[in-house]
Amino acid sequence: MSARLATLSNGLRIVTEHMPGVASASIGIWLAAGGRHERPEQNGIAHFLEHMAFKGTARRSAFRIAEEIEDVGGYINAYTSREMTAYYARVLGADVPLALDVVSDIVLNPVFDPREIETERHVILQEIGQALDTPDDIVFDWLQEAAYPDQPIGRTILGPAAQVSGFGREDLTHFVGTHYGPGQMILAAAGDVDHDALVRSAETIFGHLPSLTPPPAEPARWIGGERRELKPLEQVHFTLGFEAPSVRDASFHTAQVYATALGGGMSSRLFQKVREERGLCYSIYAQAGAYDDTGMITLYAGTSGGEVADLAHLTIDEMRRAADDMDEAEVARARAQLKAGLLMGLESPSARAERIARHVAIWGEVQDVAISVAEIEAVSRADTRAFAESVAAGSAMALALYGPAETAPPRDALRERLAA
């Protein structure tokens, strides 16, 4: 299987990957119009737009959008991230033309009916309220804000309730007119798809769109900080963040191997030491995330207020120890986990469409899976330990806590302990 890429004269890119023996297809439009593309007063509007896309077009009511896809047994959805907004559907191969027609319609022709805006505003405010009532969800927004304060990439995707309450039709149409140009769109499809037929359809649907030159996203600046929200919950939700390589960086896979070995599964250091040996928590893990120009190693655990200090200290000690004695077996296990996760994920047309869209957005082309696997396998123990040393020596750290966290050590104390 290999991806094929075409570009229309107005800049819209079409990328496909045919999967022999697969009866279904995933098709969608990925837009470089996420949270980090918002101005401060627009925070939350990219997500608001994602919701409004399903509330009716010039040709379809909200019910008809869902009905047409579900009439053929498919599904349609969308998401907003800090760097992208995606609208996608999964259908049988024969229904790809229908899916393309529906997805393109909701992206290009939303009507933004004022009554529907008010209805969906209420839905989003409920979503914000639900997030605030979900500690192991909202604490990551606070960690992001602590790591990148006063920056678009540090702001919540949902936006503050007070601001969402004020968005109107003009705000939505202005954001679309600024960021929803063909050069910011990637039409991606994987599974039972015909590349040439999709390109012809894309030319008909999108070829007339004028090019746009949106303002560039503000570069990310890792700063680090602390946010501590005290509340009488059952547990303290404890998160740490450390600057990591961007998705374009040569050490991107090293960061992934390090995070996986540290806290990526039941055999990881943190799980074994903090949960299995000491019983300080039920859930603990580490992961590596990456953006276009920055990244973050994130650690999470939930524990009682009386044990949060012990958990924090033990976590820092394990991070420091990883720089000294992480062995080959740990690194090999982490590489195997990452490799298997990549390859097993690509058995799904949806995951494969997501992958090829992201690759085109990042590099302008799709990297062969074999190259991705080889880059993971090339990460050595020496690479991983050197990366662990750089994390331990780094002066910046982000800390976010939610719950009965009165006894949790402050960020500066943890930073000194890590660097000792």
Q: Would you mind describing this structure in some detail?
A:
Helix content is 46%, strand content 18%. The protein is built from 16 helices and eleven strands. The chain has helices spanning 45-52, 62-70, 96-108, 114-132, 135-147, 161-164, 169-179, 195-206, 252-263, 269-277, 308-325, 328-345, 349-363, 369-377, 381-393, 411-419; strands at 3-7, 13-18, 24-31, 75-80, 85-92, 185-191, 226-230, 236-244, 284-290, 295-303, 398-403. The strands form two sheets. Strands 1-2-6-3-5-4 form a six-stranded mixed beta sheet, sandwiched between helices. The protein has a five-stranded mixed beta sheet with strand order 7-11-8-10-9, with helices on both faces.
Descriptive terms for the model:
single chain; 420 residues; alpha+beta; six-stranded mixed sheet; five-stranded mixed sheet; 11 strands; 46% helix; 18% strand; globular
| Percent range for β-strand residues | 15-25%
Q: Helix coverage percent of residues?
A: 40-55%
Mean pLDDT: 96
CA-based gyration radius:
23 Å
* Structural class by sheet pairing and helices: alpha+beta
Terminal residue distance: 50 Å
Main sheet specs: 6 strands, mixed
Overall body shape: globular
Low-confidence stretches: none
Q: Please report the total strand number as a whole number.
A: 11
What's the SSE blueprint?
Elements (H helix, E strand, L loop, with lengths): L2 E5 L5 E6 L5 E8 L13 H8 L9 H9 L4 E6 L4 E8 L3 H13 L5 H19 L2 H13 L13 H4 L4 H11 L5 E7 L3 H12 L19 E5 L5 E9 L7 H12 L5 H9 L6 E7 L4 E9 L4 H18 L2 H18 L3 H15 L5 H9 L3 H13 L4 E6 L7 H9 L1
Parallel strand pairs: 2-6, 7-11
Antiparallel strand pairs: 1-2, 3-5, 3-6, 4-5, 8-10, 8-11, 9-10
